[in-house]
Each structure stands twice: as structure tokens, then as C-alpha cells.
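Suppose a colleague, Dr. K., hands you the sequence of a protein chain of 100 amino acids and asks what its three-dimensional shape might be. Before reaching for any lab equipment, you can write down a predicted structure in C-alpha cell form. Begin with the sequence itself:
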Amino acid sequence: MRTRVADTSLETYHSLPVKDYLQPKEMEVMDLLRQPCARPMTREQIAQRLGWKESAVCGRCNSLVAKGALIELDGGKTASGRSAKLLKVPGLAPQAELFQ
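The predicted structure, expressed as C-alpha cells, is then:
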């Protein structure tokens, strides 16, 4: 008896909601940006707050943007004054904006 294990395995793999799965380090970034008083932050600011290297933060943030868990906004600045994208959770207004 011959089975189509390879075909069914591939179908199962492609049916998984991988897009909705967040890795533990991605969850740490999301937790930081979901805090009640959190404002949109640059990747550099996220790295400082989490105590990570900026390269580690960039990979996680790029993945979260690709998954739609974060959005990028213009208007950020790095510590050296260069322009940078701000990151925030879509639909989540910072508390300071709620009272204006």
C-alpha cells in the first residue's frame, strides 16, 4: 500500500497559521510596545530598552512589520540625529494621545 505522506505533510505545513505565530523574542518586542504608556519607538530605542544589540532588534522588528503586527511611521530620529522609522502596534493609540 502506498501513501502520499509527502503530499499530505506539505498540505498540512502550508495550512498552518505561521503568519500569526510570534517567536518569544518577537513577543518581548510586542510587550514593550503594548505597555500602557508606550509611544512609537525607533529600533534603536527598542534595543536600548530591552538591552539587546540593535541588529537583533532589527530582525525581529522587520519580521513583525512583514507579519502586520507592527507598522512603521515616519518622523523618528536616532541618537546621532539621523532619520529613522518609528514602530507602533496598529490600532493602539499611546495613552498620551487619548487625552489630547
